Every structure is written in C-alpha cells, then in structure tokens.
Amino acid sequence: MEKTLHIAILPSPGMGHLIPMAEFAKRLVQHHHISATIIIPTTGAPPKAQISVLESLPENIHHLFLQPVNVEGLPDDSRPEILISFIMQTSLSSLRDALSSLKSKTKLVALVFDMFGHDSMEVGKEFNLFNFLFFPMNAMALSFTFIVPKLDEETSCEYKDLPYPVKVPGSVSFHGRELMAPVQVRTDEVYKGYLLLSKRLSLLDGILINSFEELEEETFRVLRGQIAGKTPVYPIGPLIQSGPSNGPDRHECLKWLDDQPSGSVLLVSFGSGGTLSLEQVHELAHGLEMSSHRFLWIVRSPDRDSNASYFSASSQNDPLGFLPKGFLARTINRGLTVPSWGPQIEILSHEATGGFLTHCGWNSTLESIVHGVPMIAWPLYAEQHMNARVMTETLCLALRLETDENGIFRKEEIEKVVKELMEGDEGKKISKRLKELKNSAMKALSVGGSSMESLSKFALQLNK
Ligand code: UDP
Predict the structure, then answer these.
(1) Which end of the chain is more exposed for a tag (fewer CB within 10 A), N or C?
(2) Sequence-distant (≥ 6) Cβ neighbours of residue 306 within 8 angstroms
(3) Any catalytic annotation for residue 114?
C-alpha cells in the first residue's frame, strides 16, 4: 500500500511556538492525507505544559524528544534568544539522526521549522526535503523581516537612532526603537541570526504564517506582489490551542468567572514570559483598583527583565507577597489574582470576560480575536511594540496606554484606559469590530475559507 506523506515539525523551545505548530499539524492531518512527527529540542525533562500539549495530539501526529542539550556552559543571565539559538544549533546532529530514522520508516517529504530553526535548512536539504518556515507572528512582521537585509545594507547606525521612520511594505511606518527586539543591537549575535534568517527567506520552499487574509489583507497583497518574490506565503491561521489548555480539571478561576456578570471582567496577562518591575506592578494594581472594574490578573513576581519567566513561566518567590499592602483585601469582591499561569483561552472564551489587557504576543492577540474580546495594548518585548501599533492604529482592536517620561504606565492612565475599554464609546467600537473579525476568523478556518484553501495549496505543493 502507498505510504501517506509525512512531515517533520521542529518547534524551538517555549510554548509560544509549540502550540500553533501543533495546531497546524492537527489541521493538516485532519484535512489531508498526511501524517507528522513533532521533533522537540530539549535541555532535560520537558515541562508539564509541553507534555500535556503533546499527549493531547491525535495518533497520526507522533512526537520525539531530541537528545538534551547541556546549557551549563552558558552564562546564567543568557537571554532567552541566545539560549534558544544555542539549543537549536547544538541539536542539529541529533536532528540529523531523527530525520534519517524517520526517512527510513515514512514517506518524509518536508521539514517545517520556526525562526530559530533556520539552520536546519541545510539538514533538510541533505535529506532532499522541502524546507518550510512556520512564521508564528503576523504578516506585518514577515513583511518587515523581508526588508531587513536592505535596511542592514543602507543603515550605518543602530536603527533606534535613525532620524526617519522605517516603512514596512503593506503596513505602517515604525520608529527604529519600536522595531522587534532581535534587530535592536546590530553587533549582537541575535541580530546576526535574524539577518541570516531574513536573507534565507528567498531560499525557502514556502512560509506558513499564523494569520489570515481578512485580518491583514493589504499586507498580504503587498507581500505577495512586491516582497516575497517566488516564495509562496500561506496564511493558515488563526491557529490557537483547541481543547482545554489546563487539563480536564476545571481551574478555580473559571469557577470564579461563573459568578461574575457577562462581559464584566478584564483579563490581565502578559503571556508565557512577561514580567514587570516592582514599581510597574504597583502602578498596575492601583490602576485596576481605581478603575472599579472586575479583573482577573495572572500575576508574576516582579523582575528587572520583561521576559524573565520565558522558560519557567512561574513566579520566582512568594507568589503574591509583592503586591501593594492591602490590595488583595480591598479588591476581594471584584478581583482575582492567579499566580504565574492560568488557562488563558478558557478565560477568554468565558462569557464573563469582557476585556483583555495584553502584552500583545501574537498568540494572545489571535486568541482574543477568535473569542471577540477587546484589548488594551501593553507591549513588553519581542515584536510586541510593532504589534501594538498595528492593533491600535490599523486594525482598531485595542486601546493604547501611554507611558510617562520614564517609560512607566501610571495608575491614572491605567484607570482611564480600563474604564474606556469596559464602559466607554471607544471600547464599544472595538467590541463591534471584534465581533466582525471573530466571524471572519471562523470563516477563514471553515471549509472553503481562505486559511483552509491556503492549507490545501500547501498540501498540494507537498505532493509535487
Ligand atoms: N498562556 C496561558 N496562560 C498564561 C499565560 C500564557 O495559557 O498564564 C498562553 C497563551 O494563551 C498563549 C501563549 O501562552 O497561547 C503565549 O503566547 P504569546 O504569543 O501571546 O506570548 P509569548 O508567551 O510568546 O510572549
């Protein structure tokens, strides 16, 4: 009997990439005659959250863990991007072994990797595989990535010192300091890696992107027409985690939400790794208290670095001891604080949730769109400042908070914007727009919808 086509999927460490790549695999095997293996680079025993995602996958999606990489030689304060790149680099030889074994057992035709996995292109070629990039950000960020080589050639200073804005084809212009974190320091290893990725885009067999045509119509049009050249771009989103993200037992915070009025609660969450300074945590707590609105805050211990919890996704010390004195008692009747981690998708899909103060991570943004929840943009790191601009100015999905001259969001500003979102006219406009977008997102993923068609074109390419 003819074997089904098989693809290998290589997400870099961290839940933010694994979740959408696993969802992509699910849709592919469900709608096309294709099976998949998710290959996981590791540094030791995989985290519980990762295991629960992998164990929930259907049986024609296999997974295997690569040999653990020893990261002890790296400095303790290595940034997540350095650590991830090191793990991906060091895993190349065990990736080669894994692909060799898969090739002998399956009809392996393609390797799909994310932005940290582009060095594996060479390995993909050795096995005569199609090389696809899974781009977990939006079309604006992809369009920007395509122009990085030109920007690099034409600029001698750091981008943050550029006297003019950088125009992203098919999207808005950004001040250099708003550009994504990997391009902020040009002498840095992370910059060199991102530049290399941007130069390699034209060598790929295609790019799968977690967005949808209707959300970024103009950007996709310009990407295809002027920017991506011959490289096919497949919008296949919005891919968000389906099924309970927190196991079968219902989280306490969902029971709390059951008792709150419809659309009354603001979710406050900064993704899998976002942390705030102590001063900023206090301003946020006071701002929430002053707004008089209900809130559910997934709260982490303060830290100097905004992405300090990227790998552990848990608070470092006493889970709530750093909050302002008396805050918990004063807000007990309308606020709930959940230390470290909560079932975000279930919270967003709950009837009681009416707003989302978010760090603008792309997965969180898509989850909010899918559930029609209006947002407040509080960008922290990665490409979140660019997302925040697009979300507030182009897509009109979110309200923006303004910092003071020291870069801090003050309690008065937080109070004002929370009130505007939850009860003001701007909030209502955003809510209306999100209802429309929620419908177009559902359509894109249903039979005949734009993302389903895109996935079919991808499957067709695999068969060539
Ligand atoms: N997430 C969650 N619970 C939390 C924090 C995050 O389930 O307490 C999930 C969230 O639903 C999303 C992902 O983690 O799917 C975060 O991805 P995103 O791209 O928004 O941000 P990142 O963590 O990559 O900065």
Answers:
(1) N
(2) 274, 275, 276, 380, 381
(3) yes
